[in-house]
Amino acid sequence: MSVAHTETVLKEATHEIVDAWDRTTSKRRLYTIIGLVLIGIGFIGSVQYADEANAGHFFERLPHLFDFLQWLIPNDWNDVWRALFGRPSPLANGSEAYDFASGRVYIWGDFYIPEYFELMITTLNIAIFSTIFGFLIAVPLAFMSARNITPSPAIRFGARRVCEFLRAFPELVFAGLFAAVLSAGPVPAIAAILLHTIGALGKLFYEIIENIDMKPDEGVRSVGGTRLERIRFAALPQVLPNLISYGLLRLEINVRASTIIGAVGGGGIGEELRLAIARGFGAKTLALLLLLFLTIIAVDQLSAWLRKKLVGEHQFLLAH
Amino acid sequence: MTMINTFDRRDIETRFPELIHRTRWQRFGAPLVIIGTLLYVLYAVWFFNLPKMVHEAHWERFSIYLLQWVSYDVQPQFRVKDNGTIDIRYPRFSVLGDDPKQPAWIKTEADGSYSVDMAGGVHIGRTETVVNAHGTSLTIRTSGTAPAVVGAAPSWVSASADNVQVDLGLSGWLSIDANRVKVVKRFFGWPNFIFDSTSPFFGKSTGEVVSLLVSGDRIDPSQSNLSLAFDNFWNNMTWQHGDVWTKLFQTIVMAFLGTLLGAVVGFPLAFLAARNITPNRLLNSVLKRFFDFMRSVDMLIWGLFLTRAFGPGPLSGSGAIFLMEVGSLGKLYAEALENIDNKPREGIRSVGASPIAIQRYGVLPQVMPVFAGQTLYQWESNIRGATIIGAIGAGGIGLKIWEAMRTNDNWQNVAYMVVLLLIVVYVFDMISNKLRSAIVGEKMI
Q1: Using CB atoms, which residue from B299, B304, B318 is nearest to A50?
Q2: A319 falls in which pLDDT band (50, 70, 90)?
Q3: Which residues of A296-312 are buried (b: 16+ CB within 10 A; e: fewer)?
Q4: What burial class does residue A209 get, using C-beta atoms within 10 Å of its C-beta: 0-12 exposed, 13-18 middle, 19+ buried?
Q5: Buried b (16+ CB within 10 A) or exposed e, B393-426
Q6: Could you give the CA distance from residue B65 to residue B74 in angstroms, rounded to a whole number?
Q7: Which ipTM was obtained for this model?
Q8: β-bridge mates for residue B89, sequence order
Q9: Residues with Cβ < 8 Å from A298, sequence gap 6 or more?
Q10: Which segment of B88-97, B229-238, B343-352, B423-432 scores lowest on mean pLDDT?
């Protein structure tokens, strides 16, 4: 072959490659542009729609955005601490804005828990209790949904649909329904969060369980292990750290959820916060925000630390 | 299971000593955690006073309310007048309309009395009401000053001084006074779902409605029958389709807008927060704490503040989701950026590319699928979140559901909205799964 011939062949080949590359990139670019334009149109449309449907409009209310800082600033900064720890305020005038000492819960003689701590404990207890029970119910449900553990398609189908239903059903409606049955308070909130937790964890768990290594399972089966023994000695040791860390993640989510459910009438700190903001009690709002914020940070940090111990660095989705 | 003998055990012990000689934590950790959990559960049971709550709960309401999700009653009242005739009245807002015709399940007998097609048949006469139900026939005399059950009253009848209540199970109940019989007949289904009783199309069969729409004369001279029908449907007083659908749309818009804005703002911040992209420790940790802060303050608190600032509505809801999402997505993006493979970046840097080009060609292709997947996931879960914060006034369907539940007699509307929400959640779940697997190429947890 002559050098000139080789060169022409190479040139043609290069040409073809460059052409193909240009074609793919221009196609991809086109898709990207179409996608971005669609998102842009959706964005502008949504902004206008949301602005129109809102009671106050964005640009009209923007100058007043920081108005709330005015009522948020307490007349006496020490009132924040007094509100937090249930000490009487020197500004007390009989109104609800300064009745810090009225909600104390006396435990023993003069020893009391301040109202806000009691409310925070209620909210935390709702979250922890429903996470524990949700976890305990989700684990067997997940094993029933996993293809590699449960051979019966009927059981699998049923268990999966239960999980999906509980996960998709709005927590708000569970809360309302149980509030009608159990009377308002923290117990309907527990029921609502518990049911949602079962669904959310069950779905996550069975995906984890389906990805286990089946060799230990074969080992247990080869020595005549029953299904329970296979789950206990082959499957559970592989998945337990993962399950517990997702349970801890769920606890973080549930602390927030129980605050929100509380705000719509489930008791706990959420309700108090909503009332304090709605009525413009600056010192009370600040005290509640401080307590809530510190608690959420503490729960998140503790859970992150435990998760790190259990499974090391692992990316988690912050799913609701 | 098969047992192993001592020799096997020794053999295993020499090969895997760490399995036999375990640390204290390994041996006692699990039982301690279990005991701790049990103690906590006992404490929580005491704290919430659960036994009392469960004991005092009105569990019967549960089945009543759930039944109301899919059924409705019609409540005709039969009143014996002084001249001996019986007339039928319906309460206001009856599903049959204001001045209804006599329905087919009430028959007028020759002597002016009425038969109601309920349970085994209820016959309402001038002086007595005969109920055929639960396999027997029961006569309640209404001629005196108070209703009286003839014979022994069975368990499904409860009589007080001037009133007799007859429970007919799923088909309804009767309340009988001296000269008045109130019938509550239960029907399954959602009544007047398309047209309410004020609509000119009310009570017409599907065929009649279709022929009116296609070729009928204009009912309202100012608009076509089709637009009138749509107007009547959209403003249906019982089901409020228009309002429900608008609010549902608001919820979706809130989630879309909040998540998109969060992504747009979180994206550049994540590059500054990632250790390996921006080698400035102070900036990294300041931004990460900022993300934590935005996330910890949470949708609820942002929502409460924004509803005070902008008034209730979807703008406040979108804002609340946006502010939280800046934290969530920023954190997720930064974590994804810190987990990238460094080699493509080095390759691109080695040919002398500008810093922007390094990010564009060395980093973005690696993280884009992860970013897109997580953003879609957050959007989907924010639809659920937006429902809840709607109930505190941040716009969307949440408040409507909450108000419908509050009144306790509107469970059908709750069911309607729940069904719509479930459909929306499933559809978005499906779309986001499709998009995710198209972008990421494989299933992500």
Answers
A1: B318
A2: very low
A3: beebbeebeeebeeeee
A4: buried
A5: bbbbbbbbbbebbeeeebbbbbbbbbebbeebbe
A6: 17
A7: 0.81
A8: B77
A9: none
A10: B88-97
Closest residue of A to B395, CA-based? Answer: A54
- Which residues of chain B are within 8 Å of residue A58 when distances are taken between CB atoms? 310, 315
Q: How many CB pairs below 8 A link A and B? A: 199
d(CA A193, CA B93): 36
CA B320 – CA B303 distance, rounded (Å): 5
More confident residue, B156 or A69: B156
Residues of B in contact with A263 (CB under 8 A): 300, 304, 392
Distance of alpha carbon A221 from its chain centroid, rounded?
Answer: 38
By C-alpha distance, which of B142, B115, B129, B131 is closest to B169? B131
The beta strands (E) that lie in B30-112 are given as 71-74, 77-80, 86-89, 106-108
DSSP per residue over B115-171, as a string? EE-STT-EEE-SSEEEEEETTEEEEEE-SSSS-EESSPPPTTEEE-SS-EEEE-GGG
Cβ proximity of B141 and B147 under 8 Å? yes
| C-alpha to C-alpha distance for A110 and A129, rounded to whole angstroms | 29
User: Which residues make Cβ contacts (< 8 Å) with residue B438, sequence separation at least 6?
Assistant: none
Residues A106, A112, A114, A119, Cα dihedral to 10°: -50
Residue B21 counted as domain residue: no
For domain A115-311, the CATH class is: mainly alpha
| Three-state SS at B49 | coil
CA–CA separation, B208 and A218 (whole Å): 67
**Position B349, amino acid:** R
pLDDT at B310 over 80: yes
How many whole angstroms separate alpha carbon B335 and alpha carbon B165? 66
Domain final position from B235, B253, B270: B235
B309 chain-A contacts, CB cut-off 8 A: 56, 61, 64-65, 67-68
Q: What is the pTM of this model?
A: 0.83
In a domain, B15, yes or no: no
Structure token pair of residue B392: 């505190």
Position B445 in a domain: no
Token readout for A299 is 């729960």
Does a structural domain hold residue B152? yes
Q: Residues B100, B92: contact at Cβ < 8 Å?
A: no
B295 contacts B331 by C-beta, under 8 angstroms? yes
Closest partner residue to B310 (CB to CB) among A58, A122, A260 is: A58
Look up the domain containing B84 and give its range: 70-188
Nearest Cα residue in chain B from A315 = B335
User: Each residue of B42-56: pLDDT tens digit?
Assistant: 999 998 888 888 888
Question: B151 and B174: one domain?
Answer: yes
Distance CA B426, CA B420 (A): 10
Is residue A261 within 8 A of residue A193, CB to CB? The reply is: yes
B310–A55: do the CB atoms touch at under 8 Å? yes
